[in-house]
Amino acid sequence: MLRSRVTPCLLVHKRGLVKTTAFKDPKYVGDPINAVKIFNEKEVDELIVLDIDASVQGREPDFELIKNLAVECRMPFCYGGGVKTVEQAKRIINLGAEKVALSSAAVQNIEIVGDIGKAVGVQSVVVVLDVKKKGLLGSYEVFIHNGKKATGLKLKEFITTLNSMGVGEIVINAIDRDGKMEGFDFHLIDMVREMTDVPMTVMGGAGNLDHIRQVIQRYKIIGVAAGSLFVFKGKYRAVLINYPNKLEKQALLQ
Amino acid sequence: MVTIINYGSGNISAICNIYDRLRIPYKIANNEDDVEGAEKIILPGVGAFDETISRLDSSGFRSILDHEVLNNKVPVVGICVGMQILAERSEEGDLPGLGWIKGEVRRINPSSLKFKPKVPHLGWNSVSVSKANKLFQGIDAEQGFYFLHSYYFHCHNSEDVLATTTYGQTFASAVSNKNVFGVQFHPEKSHHNGVTLLQNFATF
Amino acid sequence: MPEYHMCSNCVMDNSDARISFDKRGVCDHCNDFYTNVKPNWHTGERGKEQLQAIVAKIKKDGEGRDFDCLLGMSGGVDSSYMLHLAVKEFGLRPLVFHVDGGWNSELAVNNIQVMIDKLGLDLFTEVINWEEMRDFQLAFFKSGVPHLDIPQDHAFIATLYNFADKYKIKYILNGGNISTECVRNPMEWLYYGTDMAQIRDIINQFGTVKMDTYPFSPIFRHKFYLRYLKGVQVVKPLNYRPYIKSDALKLLADTYGWKPYPQKHFESRFTKFYEGYWLPERFGFDTRRVQYSSLILTGQMTREEALELLKKPAFDPATIDDEFNYIATKLGITSGELRGYFNMPKKFYWDYKNQESLFKAGAKALKMLGVERSIKR
After folding, report:
1. Helix or strand or coil: residue C207?
2. Radius of gyration of chain A (CA)
3. What is the per-residue pLDDT across C311-354, written as a single tens digit (0 to 9) for each?
4. What mean pLDDT do residues B72-85 have?
5. Contact by Cβ (8 Å): A182, A207
6. Pairs across A and B, CB distance < 8 A
7. Which residues in chain A touch residue B195, judged by CB atoms under 8 angstroms apart?
8. Are β-strands A139-144 and A77-80 bridged in parallel, bridged antiparallel, or unpaired?
9. Given this model, what pLDDT does residue B46 score?
10. What is the pLDDT of residue C2?
11. What percent of chain B is predicted at pLDDT more than 70?
């Protein structure tokens, strides 16, 4: 039977790995290449690497880094950060990544999702939505540029457009929960699951394996991504790459 | 030596990396001349059926591949859509496939699936090997492989089914007929199982 | 070209340029062990008493505080086994830390995790800024010297003493041990990690990145200020009791699911490459000789077994190309450049500024005071 996916998500900032809290206060975590190598050796289901500077700085993706990371991955590798054109997306796929993630590019020009889908295949296009709660009525707004720029876009409208355009996967990232390790926002995930039939990965809030287990139990087939959980250990937030072993994984998927 | 067909479809670099690390000699075929005298052939492929078969035709590989595979009986393994084009036709498109293994490609039926996202079949799933073979030697069947597809291969002859996987319905995750093999999953992205399978293919 | 000589007792040979042999062909490492080290190495009742006394002192010092001692974990067998003893047998409450220099192997990370989890401890880590570490290591490659492990080593020592200072911990548990390390690496191969004159000279000549966050710690600070003025002590518990490596490995595996490394120090991908390939192939220094000789002297390996193992290369021919490429990629250079450093003329610590005379004087003084027993030369 198909299994849910448990995916580490790494953030790259100034060529180094960082982890944020509510998208702020990046803490240095180390060298991306060695971290990816270790995750590969731990046989993770998939890997997401996002460059959090590229769009903010108006910079191109770091193709050298992408190549060096892709070469270490014997599992699907998704790269995002600063991807704005079809050419960039094609290049990233040719360098060995399976999927390209779009965030601000999709928000600023949703047509690009369809264009890139035509060029590299819809299944290789991932749209990452960083969302924050808006107001008291439980609606969510899409943010870009590391949660700093409000787009005014309501989640529902945006996802409806994505559905009709065709996208390989939607990654929902709960800004408020980022780095807090206090659990997932089920209200948000329920909502998005309702809005689309497309594969989903949820991110933001994983503090222990039980949080992940809860998500899988609730949604049956879903991707669960985590940053802090797989990179930090213990109350002093020691940096130690970790991932559930075979037995722990089985327990998550029960 | 393994010849990997580069016709603009599929993750070739990942396959190359694996063979590099295993120190298994391979070459990338960029045109039909590169295929002549091939000992083993890998046919990658992602995307839509029609687009993939068109690309294969327009890149000039079609006739040499037919010759090497059907006449010279060179072992070939199609990966993902590379496996699907081994069929005679597909529900996804209008063009005929290579027809190296009798059967047709059908859409995964979402009605047998209870939970979203239903289609595509995306993620890790186990396999069940149907007949003795060298390709799956040493594979952890329960661990399985990474799949990403919305269509599946329906074999005309059940003896051509090499392995099955269950996702709502049970379908062929691998097929084989004499020297022609196909795997629906992505061995180049399936960790240890994938490396083993690619190694097996290169060395048998 | 001097004639080849190997010790008749252990497997050290004249790849250690300063080795000397007595009439029976036994080297000075062995004789130093038999004369100076072994007679003062107590692992029976006497050692037990000494250890108990030390443990009692540590506990007393730590009363009312979060931690009573400090332990640096590399993921290697010595520090892992020592952690086990410290917590399970001595009942100590160590502050456990790990220094991440960017080269952790998955095995190391896994081994650290299984122990921390099982023992219910909290881990501290010091992640060295990779851009700085990378440049620091590259500077050493460019200098042509053998001691490329200094950037990693120095970071560890500095972090150790930083924690001791910050948390006011007096006792440092060190996994160094006579049982598997009585023969020391000749200085020509592995020079002092805390010689700041050497480090500064090499960085000045070959470094390109400003070292803003890398933890530097001059020897004055840790050997004199912290040790003698602040009373920080280094304790080596593994020397007070029988320490048989194979037993330790078995215990760790059975108790924690700890997995062994193919060779000593292979918790770091860099050290694996450095000791397995770079030192032997570029300089003819095979650190296995030092490690096996120690095991021979302490009865854990026979000379025949060592000779048999030494017949194979220290690196794995099947994977060395990939490793070589990985090292180059990670350092941000091409494999060609790395090969260039491999082939450049050899340099040694004396080719750059150094405080060797200061270290020698200090070592002599410590030996006279009976604080350190064996030679490091």
Report:
1. coil
2. 17
3. 999 999 988 999 999 999 999 999 999 999 999 999 999 999 99
4. 96
5. yes
6. 84
7. 74
8. unpaired
9. 87
10. 65
11. 100
- Shortest CA distance from A42: residue in chain C: C106
Q: Is C365 on the interface with A (CB under 8 A)?
A: no
Q: Which residues of C fall within a CB distance of 8 Å from A34?
A: 102-104, 269, 330
- pLDDT (tens digit per residue) in C236-282: 999 999 999 999 999 999 999 999 987 767 889 999 999 999 999 99
Confidence at residue C372, expressed as pLDDT on a 0 to 100 scale: 58
- Looking at the predicted structure, is the pLDDT value of residue C371 above 90? no
A 10 A CB-CB count for C47 gives 16
Which residue is associated with the tokens 């355009």? A165
The span from the CA of B167 to the CA of B175, in Å, is 17
Catalytic site positions of A: 130
Q: What is the pTM of this model?
A: 0.93
Inter-chain residue contact A169 with B195, CB threshold 8 Å: no
Q: How far apart are CA A31 and CA C329, in angstroms?
A: 12
Q: What six digits make up the tokens of A164?
A: 């009709």
Q: C50: pLDDT confidence band, cut at 50, 70 and 90?
A: very high
Number of CB atoms found within 10 A of residue B160's CB: 22
Per the rule left: phi > 0, alpha: psi between -120 and 50, beta: everything else, C132 is alpha
Reported as type and span, the H/E element at residue B148 is strand B145-149
B20 Cα distance to chain centroid: 20
User: Which residues of B belong to the active site?
Assistant: 80, 186, 188
Residue of B nearest to C325 (CA): B21
Task: Please give, rounded to a whole number of angstroms, the shortest distance from the CA of B194 to a CA of chain A.
Answer: 8
Q: Which of A239, A243, A245 to mutate to test the interface with C (most CBs of C within 10 A)?
A: A239
Q: A134 pLDDT exceeds 90? A: no
CB contact (8 A) between residue A240 and residue C124: no
Q: What DSSP element (H or E) covers C74?
A: none
The per-residue DSSP string of A50-87 comes to: EESSHHHHT----HHHHHHHHTT-SS-EEEESS--SHH
pLDDT, tens digit, 9 for 90 and up, residues A138-152: 788 899 888 888 888
B11 with A169: Cβ contact below 8 A: no
Handedness of CA B28, B30, B34, B39 (dihedral sign): positive
Using CB atoms, list chains with 3+ pairs below 8 Å to chain A. B, C
Average pLDDT, chain B: 94
Kindly give, in sequence order, each residue whose CB lies less than 8 Å from that of residue C166, ignoring residues fewer than 6 positions away: none
Q: Two tokens at A162? A: 């994505």
Q: Tell me if B180 sits within 8 A of B69, measured CB to CB.
A: yes
Q: Residue C314 carries which DSSP code?
A: S
Q: Scanning the structure block, which residue is given the tokens 């990378």?
A: C134
Hey, is the C-beta of C318 within 8 angstroms of any chain B C-beta? Answer: yes
Q: What's the rounded Cα separation, in Å, for the pair C327 and C321? A: 10
Of A68, A235, A242, the CB nearest to C329: A68
B–C CB contacts, 8 A cutoff, strictly below = 5
Taking contacts as CB-CB distances below 8 angstroms, the residues of chain B near A70 are 13-14
Q: Which chains touch B (3 or more CB pairs under 8 A)?
A: A, C
